[in-house]
């Protein structure tokens, strides 16, 4: 398994140069490291911020599970989507509102066919809200299918 959380620094994260705003590091409440976040007041409605995880050395014809923590905090904060590089333009995962401010777990299956997935994109779309944030943390890639809850 590969730990791509932001405190470890073992994975290759890149800000998208063609989007409207960047994701920024935010300190965790517990003070142990940080996560990546987009505050609700950044940019204008429908603006996008994309954070790309570049994947290298994934074996063809095998499956992986991307597991991550996410939080959509605040009213009408926007949308969080996950895209796989070779599956554009439809997102493989999307969430548009949090029931509360809690962190939740998202999972995405990555099947390596003849074409290998070489990046995963976390896209934040700005909503109408002015408070809260969209956050992503603890991004882990494990080989095999996603475990059941």
From TrEMBL:
GO terms for cellular component: membrane. Residues 2-148 form the MAM domain. CDD domains: MAM. Coiled coil: none annotated. InterPro entries: ConA-like_dom_sf, MAM_dom, MAM_domain-containing. It comes from the Eukaryota. This is EGFL6 protein. It comes from Eolophus roseicapilla (Galah cockatoo). The gene is Egfl6_1.
